[in-house]
Every structure is written in structure tokens, then in C-alpha cells.
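B., you asked whether I could sanity-check this one before it goes into the benchmark set. Here's the sequence:
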Amino acid sequence: MAKLSAAGHSVINCTPTSASTVNESLKKRVDKANSNAVDIFVSIHFNAFNGTANGSEVFAISNASKAIAKSVLAEIVKLGFQDRGVKNTGFFVIKNTSMPAILIECCFIDSASDMSKFNAESMAEAIKVGLIGDGDDSSSIEPATLKITQKTVLKPSTEQSADIPASELVDIAIGSYPVLDVRREERHYWVKWPNKTKAGRDEHFIFEEHAEIE
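And here's what the prediction gave me:
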């Protein structure tokens, strides 16, 4: 999540904070992804079987999802893991989401050979590259003016304001504001706002219906 956010992408954590059953947990994940109309749903897991099975695989059922899955798996395989292929088992979270969805089995946690290769940072980078392309975010900062059309708040993530601690929100009145950088993505504007650093942040999100770029 951190790597995608650093590259300028909105990331929504769909993992529920509570659930009484596995089915309820899965439904909450799907509902959150669908209600936020995300572009891609990604579920990350680790396999376990008999201590000798090893390698990486990605599950997807639509043509769009399979293309994303192949890209992600190709990057993971570069780390030295056996390519177990893209598979089309209809797991609940990839069958019931309304956008392209993939479920990644990074490797086998009960495999000594897989664990000898596994590095969390390298795996996260491989997944990021598979999703959005190689290299770190190299986009140049482009000063701009953001026009706030409705009183709103700056947020440190794409979550609903009600789900974020008040200490991490910054009130913004209607008006035009110079910003270091701003990009529209999905249903939000990503904003680098130099003098709004509550909670130590200078990157924020605003719902698109509250603002526009001048």
C-alpha cells in the first residue's frame, strides 16, 4: 500500500476491522471495494500445503484481471520463485467485486526454499511494479491552483472522513489555493499542499465533487 501511495495512487484498505465469521469478513472486503468504485481489487495471501510445494500463483477470472495477474506474477517470478501460473478459481473476493480483481499467493510459508528467497520489501516492490509499471515515482512536481467549490477537508487517505481520526483532517474553505502538485485519480484529487502539514503530512486527498483544477 505504501509503495502505491508513494507513486501517487489512491489506495483503500478493504480489510475489515471486525467480523464474526470468515464469510462476513469476505463480504465486508467486497462491499468496501464496490462502494468506493476502485479500479483494481488486489488480495494478497501466502500459501501453505505440505512443506515441499513451492512457488507463486495469481488467481483471476476475467480477461482484464488475467492480464493484470500475468504482469504481477511475471515480476514475482523474477525474484526466483517458481511460476505456478495464473489460475481462474472463483474465490469470493474476485468473483463478487465489480472491477478487475486478483488474488496473489506470494509463495508457500511452509516451504524452506520459498522462505529463503522471500523478502517483504522485494515482494511489495514486485507487486507494485506488476500493477503500475517499473521504477519509482519520477513524476515532476507541477505547481497548480486548486479551486475548492464546497467546504471540505483534506484527508491522508481515500477513506471516508468519518473513518479517519479528526486529528488527521484539515478543514478547507471555499476558494482558490496554490499547491505544489495535484492530480485527479479515480474519485479523488491527490494534492501536495505545502502548508497543510497536520499529522506530519503534506500529501492529501479530496473527493472530486468538492474541487477542480484551475
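One thing to flag: The domain at 2-132 is CATH 3.40.630.40 (Aminopeptidase). Otherwise nothing jumped out at me.
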